[in-house]
Amino acid sequence: MQKVKEFLQQAEEQKIVGSAEIRALLNFADKQYEAGYIKQDSLFSKLSAPVDLEDQFVAEPSEAPRLVRGFHDVLISIGITVFLAAVWGILGSITVIIFVIALSEYFIKRQKLALPAFLLTSFLAVSSYVLFIKVFGSNVIKDISPALILASLFFVLSGYYWRYRVPIALASLIVAALSTFFAIVLIMLGVSIDGNVGVFINQNPRIVGFVGLCFSVVAFLIAMYFDVQDTKRVTRRSDVAFWMHLGLAPLLMYSLFFTILGDDGVLWRKGADQLDALVVLMVISFMILVGIIIDRRAFVTSGLISLGVAVYILTEGIGLSSGFLFHATMLALGIIILSIGAGWNYARRNIVSRLPEMIKNKVPAIAEVRGV
Questions:
Q1: H or E element in which residue 209 lies
Q2: Considering the entire predicted model, what is its pTM?
Q3: End-to-end CA distance of the chain
Q4: Is 114 exposed, middle or buried (0-12, 13-18, 19+ CB in 10 A)?
């Protein structure tokens, strides 16, 4: 800590930065040190580092991770996407993995570019998944291949995160680990009950939904662990929570659907009625409430398709033409989305302010509602 202060004071003496900036940086460093964020390096300690130094002085915390800090990031990202897509088409997924590692060494390890880091992690996960399907997806190991694929993906992402500390890599490996256990549980249940995993999944949607719900809740609690540690959303811990919420909100929602409704959990299948649609609306309303409390809009966007289908089913009995009903449903969906988006801070102020202090202290502060 003393070395940091000496470095900043030297920078001020050489007029590299002004006194106001130095004071702000010193205050920030003191707070981070007192909070225990500045300590010996470990697997998770770098998550406490600011996403960007300038982000510490932004007036409003951002829910989403800071991916683009300049057009340089965009240009490099376009180049990475075009290059790796061409490599995949010509040489295959194994070669893509090799090039991802090579590009990560330069653009993540040396230049620390956020958007390229996201793209490279995504390419690594997808190409590894495709490769493992080719390796483990044979009929000989049909029942256990999902668990092998997910376990292999977990080890790949673990090594990648250990090397590059990309938040989405940590979020993905946590999801991969939980998904591996989920697949193992389904395999054990399928073999013990029906002797065949595929038959078990098709004939027992509520059991599958309940098992998925248990793992989704665990994943949600892990995401909240990262969120609670950074309610101001200025460090990479918030980024990990963002990616976890984004990926797991739909899994949590559809697990609830299948647990409650069974086969009718997917509304666009034949057989769903107005009662099913009402249940879906109740689940989506609950998800929206959770999203408002923890200030994560992923819980709203995850249910948009089901929300639209539910509204369509509820209005289907009116007797209007299908074309008119479709556009009326789109209109209602648009009004709902715009109302939630425009009134987000108002809703948070009215809901969070009524919660116990124990909960209020663990969620982001209520943003000031600005006049129009």
A1: helix 205-228
A2: 0.78
A3: 44
A4: buried
